[in-house]
Amino acid sequence: MSTTDRNRTANGDASATFDVVVIGAGIVGSAIARKLAGHELSVALLDARDDVGDGTSKANTAILHTGFDAKPGTLESRLVREGYHLLSDYAERTGIPIERTGALLVAWTDEELEALPGLKEKAERNGYDRTEIIGPAEVYRQVPHLGEGALGGLTVPDESVICTWTTNLALATDAVRRGVTLLLNRRVEAVEERGGTTVLRTTGGDVTTRWVVNAAGLGSDVIDRMFGHDRFTVTPRRGELLVYDKLARPLADKIILPVPTSRGKGVLISPTVYGNVLLGPTAEDLTDRTDTGTSEKGIAFLLEKGRKLMPELLEEEVTATYAGLRAASDHSDYVIDADARRRYVLAGGIRSTGLTAGIAIAEYVAGLAGEAGLELVPREDLPEPPRMPNLGEAFPRPYQDAARIAADPAYGRVVCFCERVTAGEIRDAFRSPIPPAGLEGLRRRTRAMNGRCQGFFCGAEVGRLLESRGACVPHENREHGGERRSPEARR
């Protein structure tokens, strides 16, 4: 396909016949679309929601995993290990904030203590040899505010915290800059084969394509059945979390992990790149794939666990509560496969480790598609990856940048005082390649209204900027902005 054709599809012409449509604009789907757009292909990224990363990808514990505790020999173990390095490198290039906090897995019972050597051996089988078993004295030296009764621990020095919002947005933005057509508000309701192509019947109209990649997360099993398969079932697993105020951050400067069980990694305490502390998640299997509400039972459970793990944390102020749904499946591994006859690739059963593994999953999916017959001719005209706005507290923010403020005073005009978000950042979010569709998308791009007061003080001003889509903020110096340009100009 020519560059002209690729640019035409990048302008949003959903009536075109695409070479590939990727269903699901979460981290995995966005990474796959970005990878495929590195080849001479017309690619569309389709999602049922009105923004990228608005499903499972937005609400997790935001940990960049080494994969030390994955099941050895599984595809998940391999892709998490590879993804850790790929995402680390990509974050450095794009400005996704990462903090190398390290983690400490704590044993509270004799049974858990006896499990530590096996976990260390498992880590080594997974290719990670930097864990160390430590006694209680060293546990409390590293985490002095931990509750009483810890018997020992296993250090995992390379576990890190990352901004999951920026990761998703960076991958999707990179995909769009490479020419991917972003098609939002299009829930797939049926699939039809027509003369060598696949027609996706969506709530926003038909989309025609030669190949389909299913990265639909919670809906991946439903889409898979539309293609004639019945190989796995997704169970929405709700994880509720408590977010503690930034004043709690000195209590937990590293990730505190429990000994994992078959249901997951259990309740942890983790710092965030935004300066807060997380407690959670719960793990509750549901039938409703849209139920992301918190519950009295879930919060009570977390408080009970927190009282054991770190009693001092419970004395701090809770800034927010939230819940996310993980795509748990009845398989113990990722379900990634290609159907050459239907020109269809499934990337299903991707649990919370998909944040770390996303770019590696994209590499694997592209390889499978190529083996199944998708022609992959690398492009030589790829743009540089985007440089993303920094949302992390460990790195300079616009309100702290005197030179930037001097060039454009909008970066010195703080709108959200809890999170120190400026009018310039909000304006730039609306002028970016993928602007927010509403308040929740604006939160994920800027942290506006995400702090202690939850918008009580800044809500009116943020609402005014949202209504005008940032147009009421002058842009005095284009060098620092995020002005929208045509796909041709971005190349």
From TrEMBL:
Keyword Oxidoreductase in record: yes
InterPro entries tied to this protein: BFD-like_2Fe2S-bd_dom, BFD-like_2Fe2S-bd_dom_sf, FAD-dep_OxRdtase, FAD/NAD-bd_sf, G3P_Oxidase/Oxidoreductase
EC annotation from Swiss-Prot or TrEMBL: 1.1.5.3
Keyword flag Ribosomal protein: no
Molecular function GO terms recorded: glycerol-3-phosphate dehydrogenase (quinone) activity
The entry's keywords: Oxidoreductase
Residues annotated as domain FAD dependent oxidoreductase: 19-367
SUPFAM superfamilies the record matches: FAD-linked reductases, C-terminal domain, FAD/NAD(P)-binding domain
Domain BFD-like [2Fe-2S]-binding intervals: 414-467
Signal peptide (UniProt feature, chain positions): none
The protein's name in its UniProt record: Glycerol-3-phosphate dehydrogenase
Organism: Streptosporangium sandarakinum
